[in-house]
Design a protein that fits this description.
CATH topology of chain A: Translation Initiation Factor IF3
Number of strands of chain A: 4
CATH superfamily of chain B: DsrEFH-like
Largest sheet of chain A: 4 strands, mixed
Order of helices and strands of chain A: EHEHEE
Mean pLDDT of chain B: 95
Shape of chain B: globular
Radius of gyration of chain A: 11 Å
CATH architecture of chain A: 2-Layer Sandwich
CATH class of chain B: Alpha Beta
Strand content of chain A: 25-35%
Shape of chain A: globular
Distance between the termini of chain B: 28 Å
Distance between the termini of chain A: 15 Å
Oligomer: heterodimer
Number of strands of chain B: 5
CATH class of chain A: Alpha Beta
Low-confidence stretches of chain B: none
Strand order of the largest sheet of chain B: 4-3-2-1-5
């Protein structure tokens, strides 16, 4: 099982959380996961769409209060 | 099948338009879609090195974006270049009219000057959007 890295993008406006995720993916290994924390609801829709387009994997999306937890697995 | 290129002509210096262009360019570039940006007319002023104090001119939404610290448009262009496939060119005519050169524009963002004819020829292979 890969490692999981946390990216706290709370308070960042679109497309900030997505850009932070992409920068983070450059730094981790294939099979690793990144959990993005975001208060931007649009990013909760945009990130899975981007993940699907570029063939990574959305492991989970959960909302706790105003914070979205989006977990992405690096697949390539 | 690879996505068709996204070609953008920026000719307005209005903050809201520059911001929307930067967002679209950055997201497209990191989504495995090649992006080329052609900066001309009043948009050139936004990219001048000596314009850091009054870089963004706009309306109510511009004020809100600055106050609430929306991602900076020039930083978004930079992220798009760093993380994706994006090229940015300065319109050679606009540089001539403004009597400035590439050295007067912000560092590490531009891939050089270009002419409109060359840009439009390249854009035939993709989709063209004007801001």
């Amino acid at each position: 099982m890969g490692n999981r890295t946390l990216i706290d993008a709370k308070g960042a406006f679109c497309p900030g959380p997505l850009m932070e995720l992409i920068a983070g993916l450059k730094l981790v290994e294939i099979g690793d996961e990144i959990e993005v924390l975001s208060t931007d609801e649009g990013s909760a829709m945009d990130i899975p769409a981007w993940v699907d387009k570029v063939k990574h994997e959305t492991v989970g999306i959960d909302q706790e209060g105003e914070v979205w937890h989006i977990v992405v697995k690096k697949m390539k | 099948m690879s996505s068709p290129g996204l070609f953008m002509i920026l000719c307005s210096g209005e903050h809201e338009k520059i911001q929307m262009a930067a967002m679209a360019a950055a997201v497209a570039a990191v989504s495995e879609r090649p992006v080329e940006v052609f900066v001309s007319m009043n948009a050139v002023a936004v990219f001048r090195r000596d314009n850091s104090d009054g870089r963004y001119q706009g309306g109510e939404f511009s004020d809100m974006m600055i106050t609430r610290k929306a991602p900076d448009a020039l930083e978004l262009f930079g992220q798009g270049k760093m993380l994706g496939d994006m090229k940015i060119y300065a319109c050679s005519m606009a540089l001539d009219v403004a009597e400035i050169g590439m050295d007067d524009l912000v560092e590490d963002l531009f891939d050089g000057p270009s002419g409109l004819t060359k840009f439009l020829a390249d854009a035939e292979s993709g989709q063209l959007v004007i801001f």
